[in-house]
Design brief:
This protein has about 110 residues and is mostly helical. The protein has a domain of about 60 residues. The protein has four helices and no strands. Helix 2 packs antiparallel against helix 3. The chain is elongated and about 75 Å long.
Amino acid sequence: MDAMAITSIFVLSVFVGFEVVSKVSSTLHTPLMSGANAIHGVILVGAIIVADHSENNLELGLSLAAIVLATINMVGGFVVTDRMLEMFKPKKDASAAAKKEDEAAKGGQK
């Protein structure tokens, strides 16, 4: 394939990906992130295998960079998923906590 065909496929895939992701409801983002984290784990294993089969310093350096970037991507995905799951937990009643603090402060003044 020539460069123009590859570039047009890439541009079209960017538009299709954007449209697909923008149509996903917010309740489905957490399962999608979990699936993406699993894919990133596979990418990390692949980068480790490539590093094992490297034959010169350039290949080793590039594969080690791929390992570092895949690890950062995977850990970041888990952090984002954890923050998204925190949104679904019930929040503590802030007014009840403030009331307890007021009672404790009044009790300490007497």
